[in-house]
Amino acid sequence: MTVAIVHERLTEIAGSEHVVAELARQWPDAPIHIPIVDPRVTADFVPRVQTGPLSSAYRAARYRTYAPLLPLVPGWLRRRDFGSAEAVLISHHAFAAAAVNAAGTTPTIVYVHSPARWAWDKKMRREEAPSLPGQLALGMLSRLAIAVERSAAPNISTIVANSTTVAQRVKDHWNREAQVVHPPVNIEHYTPDPAQQRGDYFLLAGRLVAYKRPDIAIRAAVEAGVRLIVAGDGREAARCRKLADGGDVTFAGRVSNEEFRNLYRGARAMVMPGEEDFGITPVEAMACGTPVIALGVGGALDSVVDGVTGSFVTGRTDAEIVSNFAETFASFDNGRFDPVAIRERAEQFSPEVFRARMADVVAQTLAAHRRA
């Protein structure tokens, strides 16, 4: 079959770009439509990307920010011509669903990383843009994102969510049902090494941004008196360093995939203190045979098996959550977790499983379209 693939922007390689990469592998002849592309980003699918003037404007601005271009993205997507494609596969964060209108009568499958979480959640907007100008700008973008989603939702042929939590958001915000296909994780790179000894540290991995709540993990580690390694960087880095005063907290900054793998392999446990839409890093840790200590909400409920591949922490307030993480750190016994069982759980999130499930979704969508 012939398909077209749509993605919102290509300015970095993160979880959603790995989804696009696997879709591109499953359909090796599919053109990939992306309105904003940074030519410095490398990926196997880049030669197939079709872009336009928004990418030129982004380059002219010397890659400082793509935010001023976002209001133009829906219009660019609505004008796309998908030619003879039998189906259009859309990777959606906030604006990509606008391509549903361009598809017309062609079946559309929208893979939802999340309905624009910052658009629907006022608290998250305040955390993402604390200044008044930032709040005004993000408020404008939020209204646009919500309008795009509401306009597209009734016309989507099939909606696929990356987790059970995201499927519930789709139901709440779009009034549509979604099936769940978890995103792919590179379990071929992230593997156990029986020869590597466990260290004495817990690991916090990923971007240091407000919604991921790195502050909770750091405060809990200081309270429990345990060693924490923080691998990653971001807007919250300076605040996190202040919170770590007096504790045994090491900031490793941005590290390579190989360094990440070594840190996963040596950690007593990987820590996820915030609510993720799905969360790739816990699965990477599990692929290395390492247990996960996670806040018991969001995507972690789909990946971590409490008592088998890790432990869940709960709480009603920040103070209670910090205290419960600290208590879990202080009493944590990684020896009661079987690395083999943890690895087997991670294998359920392989790229091969993802591609097979998405191929089934597309086939079923086309079959339903032909019967209609």
From TrEMBL:
Residues 199-322 form the Glycosyl transferase family domain. Pfam families: Glyco_transf_4, Glycos_transf_1. InterPro entries: Glyco_trans_1, Glyco_trans_4-like_N, Glycosyltransferase_grp1. Residues 15-188 form the Glycosyltransferase subfamily 4-like N-terminal domain. GO terms for molecular function: glycosyltransferase activity. It comes from the Bacteria. It comes from Mycolicibacterium litorale. GO terms for biological process: carbohydrate derivative biosynthetic process; lipid biosynthetic process; liposaccharide metabolic process. Keywords: Glycosyltransferase, Transferase. This is Glycosyl transferase.
